[in-house]
Structures are given as structure tokens and as C-alpha cells.
Amino acid sequence: MRILIVEDGLEYSETFGRFLADGFAWDRAGSGPEALEKLGSERYDAVFCDMRFDRVPLERLLGDLAATADQFNGDPAAARRHLEDHQGNYVLAAIRDAGHAVPVLMSYDFGEEPRRWQRLAQRYGPVDYLPDNASPQDVADRLRGLAR
Amino acid sequence: MILALLSGLAFADPEDALGPVTRQMYAEARQREAAGDLAHASALYRAVWGNEPNFPQALIDLAEVLELQGDVDGAIAALEEAPYDADAVEALGRLLLRRDRPEDAALQFRRLQDLAPESPIGRMLEATALARFDAVGAHDVALLVLRSGLLLPLDGDAQRLVEEVAAAHRARKDAAREQALLRAAQEKWPDELGVVQPSWFRDLALRAEIEDLARKLASARPDPLDPAQDAQLQAARAAFAKGDWSTARGQLLALAKQAPRNPDVWAALADVYEESGDPAAAEQALQRAKAYDPLDPAHPGRLGQLLACAYERDRPFSIQLDSGETIEVRRPCWYGGRQEAQAAREIELSLLLDPNQAELWALLAQVERTRTDEELAADMGAWRRSRAGGEVAWRLQMYDLDRERPPVPGDLPAPGALEPYWIAEAWYQKHNPARAAEEVARALEAKPDDVRALNLQARLALEAGDEARATRAWEKSLAIDPSQADVRARLGEIAWPERPLEAVRLWEEAAASGSADARFLLAREAAADGRLYDARDLLDAYFAGATSGDHHDEALSLLRDVERDLGRRWFLGGLGTLTVAVVPAFLWRRRRAGVDLEAVLLASPTSWRDVARTCSVIRHEVLKHNTTTLPAVADALERGDAEPARWAHERLFGPRGAIERFRERTADLETLARLHGLRLNLVHRDRTLGPVVRAMDDLARLERDLRKGNRRIAGELRALGKALNEDGYRALGVLVRRLCLLPLDEGLIDGIWARTAAEFPGHGVALDVSLDERPWLRISRGDLEDILANVLRNGLQAAVEAGTKRMAVVVASEEDEITGLERVAIRVCDDAPKRISTAIVRGRYIERGLGLTVDLISRNGGSIHVEDEPGWSKAVVVRLPRAEALVAMVEEEP
Hints:
A: 5 strands; B: alpha+beta; five-stranded mixed β-sheet; disordered N terminus; disordered C terminus
């Protein structure tokens, strides 16, 4: 099974390498734009996407900084924080905007926000989520289920 | 080069046009040239040109070789053989410039512009050539290049252009043109994210900035206010705040006569003028405030706001239509026009002086977004006419761009002469002590008795830790001018505490000469000696004589301490005895005492944001990726694979590992509690975090076993994984979700309205409240009440002034399509004329500014806007994040 891991660090890639080497092949994209490039040139069975991207430069963040700043009384720092904190959502939306129907597993606890999750799942499916405390085995099981 | 740039895509290699024999000849010419055989090379280049007259590159190469051989005339003659080839003409111009024939070079560069009009290089080189003999002409051409929309690399040609034209201006002492040139260059190559300006460019811009500041500082010479005048200024500000503009204006004008160069007086007058509908006078007043205090960011910031936001009422227009008909129109319009380039410059200047002005950054972004130069607007006329509702509407917009600028006040100080002392002071103000020290040495070399330079030298030495040098400089300064009370006070500070008698003597002399700082220092000394009444008297004298000073905040704090100590003096003696008796019991109790997080939140409801953030960080950054793998590590250990354990050890105990970061976060919570006078005891008192802290401590104890991959800890790792990943993670989530949830309902809004409306007896305004549902917000009740009360108060005041009788609050949810996050929009609608904008309500000036409210909204992750509202004049809209906690659970809570 071929997975694209989208994360700004190497944590998930390392965890996959260490605990899920059997049965999975994966590539890593360090940002939204890189994920779109990879999806445009390779075929993946699923995407595993982190939510928070606070280690990528501003120009690699998806989302309109100026428009977002207006939601925070014009504060560009708050806008950047918002884009970083919710970058996984922007990546998901961009994947769908680019016409990719690949299943996406989000690493975020949407279980605490059921209304929000319901709307996102309707808009951007096929998509699923796992909370931050999921074990490597949970991730593997969910990815297999999603890809099926 | 030009052809290569313009036609590079069409003709990948000009040599392709050569026949095989000529091509071989050309290759050999280049080899000969590279080998230093210039005579053969020039003969071969000549032969290539003879064979192939459509290959002028041979001529350019020939000219280079001839120039190397010292045959400049030959080189020029060669290039003149291809007068219609842009590259040859460019090469000829460059050759002439190198040979110090700038007039001839400029002629060639003008021809180059005819041959390649799309390229900016001809103009760049022409300006560089003109700089040698016609600085004004060079300036005009350089500005054409810099203001063109063409993308130009900041390379060697650009460097020569900027450096040589700037140098020409400096040689003529034409500071205004040098500044204008560098400003245009900064706009062309801004210091933006991802763009690295070369050091020569930054140095040039910095030097110009320093010299500009030095000139302004040299000419500022502000008038200080004495205590009576300061009281008068405060009274005028109070009158203005109450809306009594006439009294405020009278008081301020009287003050301006007594202290005509005081910046605070002019800044206050600017407020009065603007509110009285005279923005031109406000602009002039702010120009004065800027001139008398060039270092205060408030004045240019305020001027930028005025130019970007101020409204001018009923301006008359006489409009000449294309048909020849003239129509007369009166209508309100923006004073400076939101498109005003000057507004952007003033705001930028303010931000340069103090970058920590978030609202001003926002305004700058807004101005830049809507800014349109007049010239560009004229070009866009036809387009605008077709889109903007016909000719009249377009012409009115054009008038908006054409502000009638008030004359610059005639008595404003002209920029001062460029003295080394002021350059040193400017470097000092720009926090560059090394450059300041160099310039101050130069100033003292030219004028060894300059007390200003000596005092600055002493300040610099003191900041560098060289007290002996500082003392020498100040003593010399004092010998030249013994009336400098503050210098005496400074010398006293250096003498303290090694030579206390000398220090006190110096302070007493300084205090007798009127030094407020010396009074403070004596007061501090008296308080330290326990002479509390003396200290209080000295502090009274300090505050009577000084409106501000280096020690103002310390003096305030000391006064509070002295008064408290005087009040408690009798009590302290008894307390000493008591302390001895209770210390052992206190220490025992302290181990078991302390409070949980809940108590911290009760003591300080506004700290919920910090608590939530810290708990979220623990949950999402410390636990995630670290403790989630503990069961898998345990499995591996039982299989006999120790490698994952060593990897987990690195994650947990390595530099910036999870354990260290967890302890930093819990320390943050303890610090937060201490700020509110509480001792947080997470381990023993907190039901949520206590088990997590204990589990982390247990994990820390396994450090050695984990590093060695000891199999026997597998079971313990699983148990700790459960405690941290499942129980701890869930408990932290519940805690975060429960923090500060507040339902917004009609009753809450009605209550706030009732309290606010009571401030306006007999207002007669009715409020209609409309909510589709009862959304939950993550905000403290106090914050929400403050925000809504201020917005309602503003609307009600405007309604009362306009004589309108209704307002409404409409609450609705909005969703962000990408993130799925919801915001609650609270729309406060009124019928009063729309005299405010989003920028104004976010601003900090005049009574419509909602600065503190905006801060509160920002801290709660929200925003405020002024928007159109159907059926109303406008709506002030507060948007706050909607909380989607486990609402059912929260509603069940008592």
C-alpha cells in the first residue's frame, strides 16, 4: 500500500519507518505545495496528513495571509498562526480542488468537534481522522480501512 | 546583452548563424584571446566580422581585445561600425564610460533606448553616465527606471546606478534628492520576506536614514513644558475628551504661544482640528509635532492615519465633462484619499521608529492595497469610466486623488547642518553604539569642548561598562559647563555604592540645581536607610518637578513602597517575633499546601487562555509522537528488539526531549499561578494534571532502563502509555474544552444593553435583539461584556448625536469553508450617518476609537469590522470564534 505522508517534520515518517515498515511504502511531503506536486506525478492509495505546520516558511503555507489577517483585526502574526494551526485543512481543500479523489486520513482530534467534522467530511470526502494519541498500529489499521 | 535578453528564446545561440569556416575561425579567435595572444585574436575577430556582417558579436569581442591592447580609439571605431546593433551600442557606451567620457556615453545609451525601447538597461546606464556631469538629469532618469513596473535584478548595473546617482547628490549636498532616490530604490527592491538586499544597498539606505535623522535632530530643539503648562495640556485633553473642542482649542493655542516648539501641544491640537472638521490644519499641526520630536513614532503614525482615514465634509467640486459642460457638486470625500502615497510613507516612518504597532501595520496593508497613484489612475480613466458608473463618478474619484495640500508651515525648522555630533546621536538612537562612538570621537576631534558630544561619549562608555571613561568624559563636561545638574546626578550614580559620601554630595548638588533624577536617587537612598519620611518628601519633590524622567516608573513604585511601609511600620516589629515562632510549621504546611488549576482559574478568569494554550501544547506537542509509541516500544522489547527503546529514549530524554518540554510547560503553569499570588501544587492537588505529572516522573525514572533496552520495563511502559496517552490525553482535552465556555443569548445582551443605556438618560433608542440559536463562545463573561458594552455604547452615542431612535443586535453564525471553523458574528446596527470605518474603530484616537475593545477582541481570536447592513446605515460587526465543545456535557454542569 502506497501512502503519502504530509507533515512539516519527520515524526510520522520515522514512526512509519520504525513500526510499520511491513505492508506500507510511503513518500513524505513537507508542505501543501509539495504534496500537490507529488500527487500530480505519483499514484497513492491514501494520504496521511498532519494538521499543524509551524516549521515551514510562510511562502510554503497554503492560504491567503492578507485575507486571514482581516479575520484577526489585521494582525499578520495571528493570521500566520491560524494558517499554521489549521494547515492540514488547507492541504485537504487544495487536494480536492486539484481534482484528486485519494482518501485522506487527518491527524487531528475532530471527535471533539462533531459539527465541524460532519461539514468537512461531506465537503471533502473520502476523509477520516485519528486523534493525536493514536498508536502506530491505529494509524495502520485506519489507513488500510480507508484505502479499501 | 540586450539582444541576448530580448531574443534569447528565439535564437538560442547567435553562433548558429555562422557558416562552418567562420565558426571555426571565431572559435580559434576566442582560444587565442584566452591564451593571451591578442594580436592574432584581433585579426581573427576582424576576419569573422568581414565574413559575417550579421554577427556583431565579433566586433564587440574585437573592441574588447583592442582595448586590452591599449588601442582605445581602435576599439571605439570598431564598435561604431555597427550603429544599429543594440549590443554593440551598449558596449560602446560602456567603453566610453570607462574611459571617462560620460557625455559621449550618455549619447550612446540614449541611442540604445531607441534600439531597445522595452529594456530598462539603456535608461539605467544613461542615468549612471549623467551622474558624472548632470546630477539632476541623472536623478530624473533614475526615477523613471526605479518607478517603472519592470522587474530589475539588484545587480552590478543597479548598484552603479543607485550608488553613483546618490554620490552625485551628496557631492552637491542635495539631501532631498538623495532621500527621494533611495526611497524609490527601497520601493523597487523592498526588504521583504524572501528578498535579501545586498549589504551595499542596506548600508547606503542606512547612511541616508542616519543623516536624515541627524539633520532633524539638529533642528528639532523642542520646548519643554513646566508643571503648570503640563497641567494646562492635561486640562485641554480632558476638555477635548468631553467634546468641548472650543475650550480645548483655546487652551492649546494659548499653550502653543508659550511653548511654540512643544510636540505634545501640536499633537493635541491636531486632534482638535480634525474633530472640528479641519483636517488641513490637523495635517499642519502634525507636521510641526513631527519636526519638534522626530523620534516619536506617534506623530507620523497619526499623520498617516489622518491622510488615510480622515473625512472632509461637503467639499465643492466643479467638474468639466468631456462634452464641455461644467457641473457643480458638493459632497463629502476622503481628506487625503485612501490612495494617498504620502499616508503610506508616514505610516512606514512610524513603523520604522516602532515596529510594534499591529494596528498601524494593518492600516498600512489597507492603504497599500487601495493605493493608486494619480498618474496610474489617469491611465486607467477609460477603464474606470466603463466600470465605475460613468464619467461623473470617475471624475469625482479623480478629485479624491487630488487633495489640496495645505502649505507647509513657514516657521518649521529647516533641516539642520550635518554635524558629526548629531550623526553620532542618530546612530545612538538607532542602537548602534559602535558607529555612534566613532562619530562622537570625530565630533570631539573637531570640537574638544562640545559638552553634548562629551555627554554622549560618557553615556556610550557607561553602556559599554567602562565607568572610568564615562567619569572622565562627564567630569570634563562638567568643568566646561558646571550648571549641568543631570551630569552631576549621573556622576553620583557611578560613585555609588563604592563612594557613598561622594555620591550623596553629588546628588544633593544636582537636586539643588533642579535635577529630578537626583531627587529620586536621594529618595531611594533615604528609603534604603529607613528614613521613610525623608524619602516621601523627596519623592513629592520629584513628582512636583518632573513630568517624566529616566526614573519615573521606579519613582512611582518606590513611592508606593514607602507609603505602604510607613503604614505598616508599627506592625512589622511584632511580625518579626511571630515569624520565628511559625517558620517550622509554615515549612511543613508548604509541602502539602497549594492549589489546583481550577483555583488559579477562579482567581484569574482571564488566565484561561494561557492555561488552555499550555494544556493544548502538552497534549499536541509533548504527548503526540512521543508517548504514543510506548506500547509499540514495549512490544519490541518483548520480542528482543531493543532498538526502538533507544530511539524512544532519544525522543524522551534527548535535547528538547518530551520530558524536558513537559516540565517547562508545567513550570509555565506554576509561574502563571505565582503571578496571581497562588502556589500551584499539580502533583498533590490537581486531579487532571496530577496523574500526568506523576506518570511523567515515573517515566523519567526509567531513563537508564530505556536507554539499555531492558526488557523487564515493557509492562511498565504499557501502563505509562495508557496513563499518558489515554487517561491523561482525554483528561486534558476535557479540561481545555471546559475552559471559559459561555452561551450567548438574548438575556445576556439585554442585560448589557440595560447597563449601557443607563449612561444615556432619556435616549429614547430602542434595541431589537435577534438570535437564531444560542451559540457558545470560548470567552470569559467579563471580556464579552466589556466588548459588547463598548460597541453598544459607541452606537448609542452616535444614535443620540444623530437623533435616531432604533438599533439592533443580530447574531448569526458564519462558517469558514476550508477549516470548517465557525465564527459568531454579532452585528450591532444603527441608523446614525456612516462616519466611521473599520480602520477608525480599530484606531486608538478620538472617542470613536475602540482600542482597548479591539485588543480584547484580538486576544479572544476575533475581529471587528464596520460593514454595510441592508435597512440600516451600517453595522459594527464583532466576530468571535464559536466553541463547539461537548455542549451537552457543559450544559449538564451546575
